[in-house]
Amino acid sequence: MYTIRRKPLYIVREHPLWAIVQMNSTSKVVFVCSANTCRSPMAEAIAKKTLSELGVTAFSVNSAGLDASDGMPPVEEALETMRARGVDVSTHRSKRFTLSLAEGGIILTMTKKQKERILRDYPFMAGHTFTLNEFANGFDEDISDPSTNDVSYKQCADLIERSVRRVIAKMLEDHR
Q1: CA 17/CA 62 separation, integer angstroms
Q2: Strand extents, DSSP E, 24-162
Q3: So which residues are the catalytic ones?
Q4: What pLDDT, in 10s, does the model give residues 63-97?
Q5: Do 26 and 4 contact (CB within 8 A), yes or no?
Q6: What domains are defined for the chain?
Q7: What is the pTM of this model?
Q8: Ranges of the chain whose pLDDT falls below 50
Q9: CA Rg, the chain, in Å?
């Protein structure tokens, strides 16, 4: 089980493309996409699996969708993709993004438009809101929705997994 504590998040130093974030004794990350039935639940599941494998319990990981209908299961292709990776996301149910989900943590969106929308609605979250690629890799490239683009669910999960592992590495490094 993951320990959830409400501790402040401090931006220590900023780089033009990403911030190095120093966490107190716990950290919170919320992955955000559109419907919370594909990309963000895959990111959440990959992060939780990675943290579990590392024996890390001090991080809270969640996901949400900007346009989500509460209570929807992941799309079948996402279920199958994650099952092939040894992760069961069948109990996940979508939820709409609310600011309380991200309180004291960082928000990692799948696209620039999602990031812009959050910052338009919550301008005080600047410095806490990034695209996943921006925070993990230093470049602001979207992770495309496989249901509407040419990228396959496997390719999408591969991109998400690489980025999520980098996010965790950065957080653990900064957590010390």
Answers
A1: 23
A2: 27-33, 59-65, 106-109, 129-131
A3: 33, 39, 145
A4: 999 999 999 999 999 999 999 999 999 999 999 99
A5: yes
A6: 9-136+149-169 (3.40.50.2300)
A7: 0.85
A8: 1-26
A9: 15
